[in-house]
Amino acid sequence: MADIVTLKALCEELKLDPREARERLRAAASEAKANPELAKARKPRTPWQWVKGSKALLEAKRALSN
Description:
The protein is mostly helical. The chain has helices at about 5-15, 20-30, 35-40, 55-65; strands spanning about 5, 50.
């Protein structure tokens, strides 16, 4: 089974508040042209989580580091 990275783990790694991180991710996912993989991976009403090493995870990290 693939390793899963949760929003909680990502927030701990980047030292971010989870509430602020969710706001940034929603904004980034709504920009489908800039973050196509993140937009495809987003499913409403489900937890933010990604497969380790996926393009969507890289886009999420980039969105949270800005």
